[in-house]
Write a structure and sequence with these properties.
By secondary structure, this protein is mostly helical. The protein contains 13 helices and three strands. The chain has a three-stranded antiparallel sheet, with no helix packed on it. Helix 6 runs antiparallel to helix 8 and helix 10 runs antiparallel to helix 11.
Length: 318
């Protein structure tokens, strides 16, 4: 019998795949939920071969109910890759043609005053849940270390070394891992959070940040708390355009560092690879995007390029 209740011909493979992902630290319920839908489709349509017709047939049906939301496609694509490597070299891997077109985000540019007021409100958050003591620490990691929302909420407790002053972000976007040093101020903030969490849940909790039941916090709860703190701080919301969101702390981390290097006269080109590595980007192209998010930087950039050569190298060979 399937450990996850799968009923199709692929039940043994799907169970084995989930055991593999669990061993790699991927525990998401969303993955299981969508694979159960795939399994039910295969059972109903008597699909026994993991080929293009089977996979794309289910994807077509699933799209009818999911609309433009397509991130779940990564689950079935990953199953195909795993099958090719472990069970079936002929397994079909969903084509990238099914990916949704990339639409670049337009971040809300946080000001220094907004950030100060936000954290002042977070420090006095009135809540019965663990957010009462962990809100400051959670958003501090996003602001001071440029972490993604998912990286922060998935952070394992045993990957936070406050004595050594670093955290390990494992198997993040693109399966990249990195170790991030922490400043003494951030260590102090995390230590206060950790002490309160240990008192509430004991020393055996798996995630550094927990829900009221001791489980992993959800993306929805992060957004809810961010909005609650933002409103409690009395910060205005734009009447139109991009609304502030947790991910804007990551944007601020990137362009704040770039602007600081510019003010110091540091060669930004030389620093971009380090920033890219720290933020978990595949290359500096992704990091360079943040240069264009800051009007202050672009103004400074225009002034500097009038006095010296461009900080970015020319394309081509000589």
């Amino acid at each position: 019998m399937s450990a996850h209740g799968f009923t199709s011909a692929f039940a043994p493979e799907l169970d084995a795949y989930l055991v593999f992902k669990d061993a790699m630290g991927f525990y998401g319920a969303s993955r299981i939920w969508y694979l159960k839908r795939f399994d039910a489709y295969c059972t109903a349509h008597d699909r026994t071969v993991f080929d293009r017709e089977t996979v794309e047939g289910w994807v077509t049906v699933q799209l009818a109910s999911s609309g433009r939301y397509r991130s779940w496609m990564s689950y079935i694509r990953d199953v195909g890759r795993w099958l090719q490597a472990h069970k079936n070299s002929d397994a079909y891997v969903l084509s990238d043609q099914w990916r949704a077109p990339f639409v670049p985000a337009h971040p809300y540019l946080l000001t220094t005053q907004e950030i100060e007021r936000f954290f002042a409100a977070a420090a006095h958050l009135e809540a019965q849940s663990p957010w009462r003591w962990q809100a400051v620490a959670f958003f501090t990691l996003m602001h001071s270390c440029g972490l993604r929302t998912g990286e922060t909420l998935l952070l394992p407790t045993d990957r936070v070394d406050l004595d050594a002053g670093h955290i390990d972000v494992l198997w993040s976007k693109g399966n990249r891992s990195r170790r991030l040093p922490l400043t003494p101020q951030v260590v102090e903030v995390l230590a206060v959070c950790d002490q309160a969490a240990r008192k509430r849940f004991g020393a055996s909790r798996q995630r550094f940040f927990c829900s009221a039941t001791g489980n992993q916090v959800t993306t929805a709860s992060v957004g809810k708390m961010f909005n609650r703190i933002w409103d409690r701080a009395g910060l205005p919301r734009p009447l139109g355009g991009q609304q502030p969101r947790p991910y804007d702390f990551r944007h601020h981390f990137a362009y704040a560092n770039i602007e600081r290097w510019m003010r110091q006269g540091t060669d930004v080109t030389a620093m971009l690879p380090y920033l890219a590595r720290y933020m978990g980007h595949a290359g500096i192209e992704s990091t360079y995007y943040y240069i264009h998010t800051s009007p202050d930087f672009m103004d400074a950039y225009a002034d500097i390029t009038g006095q010296r050569q461009s900080l970015l190298p020319e394309v081509g060979f000589e």
